[in-house]
Amino acid sequence: MAWLDQLRPASFRGVPFQVDTIEHLAGDNVVLREYPFQDLPTVFRMGEAAEEIKLSAYVIGEDYIEQRDALRQVLSGQGELVHPTAGRMLVYVAGRFTTREAPTAEGGVCRFDLTFIRAEARRYPTQGPNTRTQATTAAQAASRPRKRPLLRAGAWPAPPAGWPPTRWSACAPRWSPPTAAWPQ
Question: Cα angle vertex 16, ends 10, 19, to 5°?
Fold first, then answer.
């Protein structure tokens, strides 16, 4: 199959147009740092850059004014672009576009300079746990007085089931509270 047979009719949001030239800008975002007394710069790759598609397009025919108006009406926001060589893709119109008409030299033709940014479906942040609220709740619960103390002064809990009393008593501290009042 010849390349000419593989070309698709271009359109944006279902409005057809013809294409003269296509420019596709792609690559990486980089930050270049140059320092004194060093011959080579330092380059930092900051991820993939947005892909820009620039089309030199036109509408032609006896009804070119209706075609022009229909295309101008859809040239904003997000939509599906049928690229002549790359196929269908989701894009955003990149700001402004230019139209050129020369009624005496090129009657029945309106030319467009269009720029699209290739995009994907919008991804919104999802709600995650509110760690601030969880931490505040845990702190408030910890600062409340307990309904019963963990240990009474001078009392030790019963040994766990299955522990011989000799091992348990070996683990308990040998300290006992003073019987006399503390000195003032």
Answer: 45
In a domain, 160, yes or no: no
d(CA 103, CA 79): 30
Instruction: Please report which confidence band the pLDDT of residue 157 belongs to, taking 50, 70 and 90 as the band edges.
Output: low
Structural domain harbouring 38: 3-118
Sign of CA dihedral 69, 67, 80, 48: negative
> Residue 155 domain-assigned?
no
How far apart CA 18 and CA 60 sit, in angstroms, is: 8
**Residue 168 belongs to some domain of the structure:** no
Answer whether 53's CB lies under 8 Å from 44's CB: no
| 76 located within any domain | yes
Are 112 and 134 a contacting pair, CB within 8 Å? no
CATH number at residue 13: 2.40.30.200
pLDDT digits (tens, 9 = 90+) for 100-142: 988 888 888 999 999 999 887 667 777 777 788 888 888 888 7
Q: Which 3 state secondary structure label does DSSP give 23?
A: strand
Q: With beta carbons less than 8 A apart as the criterion, state whether 58 and 109 touch.
A: yes
